[in-house]
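Students often ask why we bother encoding 3D structure as a string. The short answer is that it lets us treat folding as translation between two languages. Here is a chain of 155 residues written in the first language.
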Amino acid sequence: NLLARSRRIVSVCGARGHGKSTIVKASAHYLADRRAFVDGILYINCKSAASLTEEILSALEERAFRGRKGMPSRRASGKFVEVGSDARAAEEAANKYLLSHLHDKQCLIVLDDLSAADGPFLAELLAHCHQVQMLGCMDTPLEDGDSGGRLGDFF
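And here it is in the second language, the structure alphabet:
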């Protein structure tokens, strides 16, 4: 489904320890070997992520640092609220910056150990970034209600 671009988000669900992460990683390698996504594949381990937005931005910056197609440093560009200011404002600024960077990118974001709490952000990202696709693994299926009813169009 990801190669054919017939789905924007594909999820692998099941109990812990049954190989979901292994399947997702193998799929990502398969797609990378075939250069299926012009702007690359990003792997995010959601389990250790305090902020999904920050993890995606960090992965993009790491790609830029390694000399691949990337992005200018958001810290150097002064686009974010300074440290110590309102955390919600900083998160909103980070979300806005991420959406503006990914809006024309054809990439795959692999989300390992995704949770339902990330549903609203994923719906917003997919709504604004029309060539971004996602491959995720989670314990329970991501329901349309988890995103305020906005993810249904992307499955």
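Translate back mentally: The longest strand covers residues 133-138. Keep this in mind for the problem set.
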